[in-house]
Structures are given as C-alpha cells and as structure tokens.
Amino acid sequence: MKLLIIYFLVLGFICIRDLFKVKNFDDYVVAGRKQSSPFVFMSLMATVLGASATVGIAARAESIGFAAFWWLGVGAIGFWFQAAFLSKPVHDLDVRTLPEIAEKTVGRTGRKLVAFIIAVSWIGIIAAQFAAVAGFIGLVLGHDAGTQSVLITAVIVIVYTLLGGQLSVVRTDALQFGILTLGFFAAAIYLFGGFSGAESATLANGTSAGLASFGNFNLLNEKFSFSDLAMMLFTVGGAYFLGPDVISRNLVAKDSSSARKAVVIGSFAILVFSVIIVLLGMWAATYAPNVAGNSVNPLFRLASGVLPLPLAALLSVGLLSALLSSADTCLINSAAIFGSDILNTRRISVVRLIVVAIGVIATYLALQGKDIIGLLTMAYSVYTPGIVAPLAVAIIAHKKFNIKKTLWYAGVVVGGLFGLIPAIFASTAKIALPAYIPHIGIAISLIFALASLKRK
Length: 456
Prior knowledge:
Elements: H1 2-19, H2 25-30, H3 37-48, H4 52-64, H5 70-85, H6 87-92, H7 98-105, H8 108-141, H9 147-192, H10 198-204, H11 226-242, H12 244-251, H13 256-287, H14 298-305, H15 309-342, H16 348-368, H17 370-377, H18 383-397, E1 401-403, H19 405-429, H20 437-451, E2 453-455
Antiparallel strand pairs: 1-2
C-alpha cells in the first residue's frame, strides 16, 4: 500500500511540473509535437500494453496455451505495415487528431464521422479501463472496494491528465513502461529461474518441471487454428496499423523519422513482451491454478500468492501502470477529439473541461456496470471494418489521387454495418453470428475505397 502511495505521489509531481510547461493547444494535446523517438517508443509501449495485452493475454494463455502469443504477434505485424506505409505520410499531414487526417485526405464530413465514432465509443472504453483498474486496486487492498476503488482510479487519471495533458501522459507513460518492464521481467526471472520452489515440488512428485511441464509451444493448436489467426490478423492487427491510440503517438513525435523508428522498435519489443506474458500465464496455470469456485486472473494470482513481497509489489505496480497508461491516453485523445473535431475549438480551457466531463461520465458508467459500457463500445466495432481500410487508402493516395467521396463514404457505412450488426446481436439478443462477418466488412470497405480513387 505504501508503494502505491509513493507511486501516485510521483505521478502527481510529474503532472504539476508539466502544468507550468503547457503554453498552447499543441503542448496540451500533442505534447508540443517535439518528442524524441525514445519517449515516443515508451509512450507507444505503455499505450498498447494495457489490460487486453497483459491481463487479457495471460488469461488466454491459461486457456489456449502458447497460441495466445498472437494477440501481440499480429500487433507487431500491424506495426510493420504502419512503419512501411503510414508513419511518414501521417506525420507529414501536420494534424493534431486522427479525425483531422480524414478531413485532409477526404473531407470535412469524413472528419465528423470518424470523430463521432471514436468519441462516443471511447467513453465506454475509458469506463471499462476505470473498472479494470478499480478491480485491481480492490485486490491489492485485500477486499472488493467497489465504489471506493472506481473513484480513486478516476480521480488519479482525471487529475494528472487534466493538469499536464499530453505532456503528462507522455512522461508518465515513460515511467509506467519502465515499471511494468521491471515487474514482468523480474517475475519471469524469479519463476523460470527456479527460485519459487514450485518446480522442485513438482519434480519430487515424479512429474516434469519447468517449461517442459507446459506441453507444446505450438503457435497454432486445436483451440486456436489458422482461421482464428487470419481473422485476428485483420481485426486486432488493424487496430495496431491505424488505431486512434497508436496513431496518437505518431502525432507527438518531433518528426516522421522519430515516429517511424519508435514503431519499428516497438514491433519487436511487443513480441518479447508477448512471450513473457504468455509464459507467466502458463506458469500460473500449471503451478498456481485457480481454486475451485474462484476465478482470478493468472497475473493477479502471481502477485497475490506466489511471488515474494518485493517482487509481488513490483509486479503489482507494473500491472497498475499497464492499466493506467491506456486509460490516460484514451482520456486525453477523446477530449482533444471532442474539442477540436466536434466542437471546433482549440482552447485549452475547453479541452480541460471536456477531460473532466468525459472522466465523470466514464466514472458513472464504470459504477453502473458492463451493460451500458458495452452499448457505447459497440460503436467501436464499426471502426476496424468500416474505417481502417478506407482511411489507410486515403492517406497513402493523398496528393496522388482524387477521391470520389460518395463511393468512399459508402464503403465506410457498409463496412461499418458488417461490424456493428454482429455486435448488436451479441449484446442485445445474445446471438453469436459467424466471426468472419466483420472481415467481409473489411473487404467491402477496402474495395469501395480503391474504387473511389481517380488519378489527378
């Protein structure tokens, strides 16, 4: 508990220091567009190593084994494509938000459409992140703190984002990435170095120990087939290729070279993290399984009952860093989008008010439960099938082709519907439509986008 207090005080010091450095809209929303590649890299890593890439991968490793590697594996592929095709043209557009890219490449209607989808859905995503952090704080406190944990989480994230904006987010991301790196690697060294004693006990029982006890390390198996990988490549990989959060890291870079370098290095770094997180999940499944009638995430089990106190504290703060670093990025970017792209204002005071408003709404939703959050995040199901391919085509074709806007918008709408309809059925009617339907939407939106191109 004392370590958490120290951690939060350090975050507070950073945001108060950055408060006096914020002089204009660019400082607050894109950290002055002058961040070097190391800071862009660390902020990018802290952003993508959130709840789904840490807690989520560990849980998947417990159920499907080493094939869980592909969650970040396809992310690395998305990063490679981003570095090859988007990093330079996106930064050279000299924009402050992702929807602004749509205006410069397609038109103002495109900007409003993309802004609305991101802004609405990210309120639900922020609420879900608040709930995830609150659940972890409750675990650290040793009981379900409920409302108290949600409020603590919300106040922390809202305050340091409110004061320092993107400058604080980039600086705290660097700190959080360093801590989560130490936490995960220290836990891996302790567990796989044989210091835990669990493997010795296993050998004494006459069974295999260490990595050999995990079975095979196949990247594909009966629980995760090639078709699953192909679908994940487009849905998850698409978010790493042109997701609002990862592209926002490009916009804080001082030049296109720094942005591209951060993505390339990040692509290899997340492969390493994927292996580490998967192995930690598999270790917990083998040596520290869930107690009957209880379901606790593998990483939480390691932090609360397996690792010695110093390492448990380090891993706990690392997990907290992973969860917080995604929430603050979403909060500042959604506020910037609401202000700049929807309300057409670049006044820092207005964006700060929006930070508070979004934070309060997200807090309320986190306290209400998952149903409302699910309805809001449902809007995000439109993004990958409806927007990623058309917007990528528009960026790459910028200044080389004219775009027939009717065809381009038709692709966005039709492709988006193929993502939205399955989400509606799953959320409201509890009917699971075939998993490939959003991929049909991706193909349709890509075909329409390519058909919309006309040489100048």
